[in-house]
Design goal:
The chain is α+β, with helices and mostly antiparallel strands and about 70 residues long. The protein has one domain (about 10-60): Irregular (Factor Xa Inhibitor), CATH 4.10.410. It is built from three helices and three strands; from the N terminus they run αββαβα. Strands 1-2-3 form a three-stranded antiparallel sheet. Strand 1 (about 15) and strand 2 form a beta hairpin. The radius of gyration is 15 Å and the shape is elongated. The mean pLDDT is about 90.
Length: about 70
């Protein structure tokens, strides 16, 4: 049987922490930031932890990857 492949789009967008939580970049940071307030842009910096109901899906997509 062939090997299962890692979902490459998921691999580029999400990272797993040592405890199994999923980190990701917030949406809306790429462009069109001129119309946002400075507070909103500032709060979009950095990474955030994904909500727990979605972590199972990300783990399944990254399962065949050596994290």
């Amino acid at each position: 049987m062939p090997k299962m492949k890692t979902h490459k789009g998921t691999k580029k967008r999400f990272r797993l922490t040592a405890n199994g939580k999923v980190k990701h970049r917030g949406a809306g940071t790429s462009h069109l930031a001129v119309r946002m307030s400075n507070k909103r842009k500032r709060n979009l910096r950095g990474t955030r932890v994904l909500d727990t109901p979605f972590t199972r899906m990300i783990h399944d997509a990254l399962r065949h990857n050596s994290y």
